[in-house]
């Protein structure tokens, strides 16, 4: 089971290690990053894991891929959204509820977008998450929400969501438990079926379960 948890958290681990590498090697905006193969060897992980991390970083606007050339570190000064939103949140100590409400709006919007698009509903990632619950008895919470946001192909929403998730302090960086798995199964199955209301109802139950942990 320990290996399962390690695998589930691999995405966040890789993103963190990439950031450390960029800082340690003095890679600047416009500089080329090592190839997927080189990164996989240096970080000792599979290329698919590296590719997943790079894809999310690209959706956030932190890196850019040039076809036939490679991957480059983006110019952060061209993307002030993260700084603006972070500053707003830090200067508004009573805005925790607004942050949580806005995060939920983005997550429900992602559900609606996926349910209304047959191609997004048929992405193999949903069956993969269901299989993980069945075989391992748990799944990394953030994997579920992040994949839903990524599936919308909306870079702005993903960028905002990462910030909102951080400041709302929702405990997504944990594994699901036995009772919770049934709720998550319902959420994913209804998502695949394209049932908007049923999926959102399951999502509401899931969030209520997660938030209940903070109250205990």
What is this entry, summarized?
The protein has helices at 2-8, 10-24, 36-43, 47-59, 81-91, 96-115, 118-121, 124-136, 141-151, 155-168, 178-193, 196-215; strands at residues 63-66, 70-73. It is mostly helical.
Report on this structure.
α3 packs across α4, α5 packs parallel to α10 and α11 packs antiparallel against α12. The chain has twelve helices and two strands. With 216 residues, the protein is mainly α. The longest helix has 20 residues. The protein has a two-stranded antiparallel ribbon. The radius of gyration is 18 Å and the shape is globular. A hairpin with a 3-residue loop joins β1 and β2. The protein folds into two domains: 77 residues, Arc Repressor Mutant, subunit A (Orthogonal Bundle), CATH 1.10.10.10; 135 residues, GntR ligand-binding domain-like (Four Helix Bundle (Hemerythrin (Met), subunit A), Up-down Bundle). The relative contact order is 0.12. Helices cover 70% and strands 4% of the residues.
Summary tags:
single chain, 216 residues, disordered N terminus, Arc Repressor Mutant, subunit A, Four Helix Bundle (Hemerythrin (Met), subunit A), 70% helix, mainly alpha, 2 strands, two-stranded antiparallel sheet
* CATH architecture term of the largest domain: Up-down Bundle
Distance between the termini: 26 Å
Which strands sit side by side, in order, in the main sheet? 1-2
| Average pLDDT, all residues | 82
Layout of helices and strands:
Layout: H1 2-8, H2 10-24, H3 36-43, H4 47-59, E1 63-66, E2 70-73, H5 81-91, H6 96-115, H7 118-121, H8 124-136, H9 141-151, H10 155-168, H11 178-193, H12 196-215
Antiparallel strand pairs: 1-2
């Amino acid at each position: 089971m320990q290996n399962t948890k390690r695998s589930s958290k691999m995405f966040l681990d890789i993103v963190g290690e990439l950031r450390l590498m960029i800082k340690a090697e003095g890679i600047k905006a416009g500089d080329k990053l090592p190839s997927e193969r080189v990164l996989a060897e240096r970080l000792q992980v599979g290329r698919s894991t590296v590719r997943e991390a790079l894809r999310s970083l690209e959706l956030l606007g932190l890196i850019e891929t040039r076809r036939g050339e490679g991957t480059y570190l983006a110019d952060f000064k061209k993307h002030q959204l993260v700084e603006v939103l972070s500053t707003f949140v830090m200067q508004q100590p009573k805005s925790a509820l607004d942050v949580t409400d806005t995060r939920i709006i983005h997550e429900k919007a992602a559900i609606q977008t996926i349910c209304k698009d047959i191609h997004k509903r048929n992405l193999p990632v949903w069956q993969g998450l269901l299989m993980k619950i069945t075989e391992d008895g748990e799944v990394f919470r953030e994997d579920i929400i992040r994949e839903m946001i990524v599936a919308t192909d909306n870079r702005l929403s993903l960028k905002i969501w990462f910030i909102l998730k951080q400041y709302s302090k929702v405990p997504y960086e944990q594994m699901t438990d036995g009772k919770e798995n049934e709720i998550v199964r319902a959420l994913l199955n209804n998502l695949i079926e394209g049932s908007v209301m049923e999926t959102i109802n399951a999502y509401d139950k899931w969030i209520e379960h997660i938030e209940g942990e903070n109250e205990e």
